[in-house]
Design a protein that fits this description.
mainly alpha; AhpD-like; 2 domains
Length: 126
């Protein structure tokens, strides 16, 4: 693997946690391995590994973008990641308020529903 892949995997583990990454790696097949390598190098090894903004800020941006574009499948994963990135519940609701104004109330509303469910599950797991 490349240095970018190794950096990406380290950042991915630091952000999402070992358990999540271990599950994802265990589910990887020959079919999706090229895709997994690409996102590990590109998303995690380049974008998430950049020191130009903080992990907290990157977390808020990611959640807002996922919600604004209606890509709700990954919202819960990134809400869980806030435990590692330092983005607070207040940060998340502020990001989703921006989504409501700039991308639409229904998308923000759905993301808020997912965030509430995910935070409740996280609390129950403690």
């Amino acid at each position: 693997m490349t240095d970018r892949y190794d950096q990406g995997m380290a950042t991915r583990r630091r952000t999402l946690g070992d358990a999540h990454v271990d599950r994802a790696e265990a589910n990887k097949t020959a079919f999706d391995e090229p895709f997994q390598t690409m996102i590990t190098e590109g998303a995690w090894g380049t974008v998430w590994s950049s020191d130009k903004i903080t992990p907290r800020e990157r977390s808020m941006l990611t959640i807002a973008l996922l919600a604004a574009l209606g890509n709700f499948e990954e919202v819960a994963m990134h809400i869980r990641a806030t435990a590692n990135t330092g983005a607070s519940k207040d940060d998340v609701i502020e990001a989703l308020m921006h989504v409501a104004v700039y991308a639409g109330v229904p998308r923000a509303n759905h993301a808020i529903k997912i965030a509430k469910e995910t935070y409740a599950a996280m609390e129950a797991e403690k």
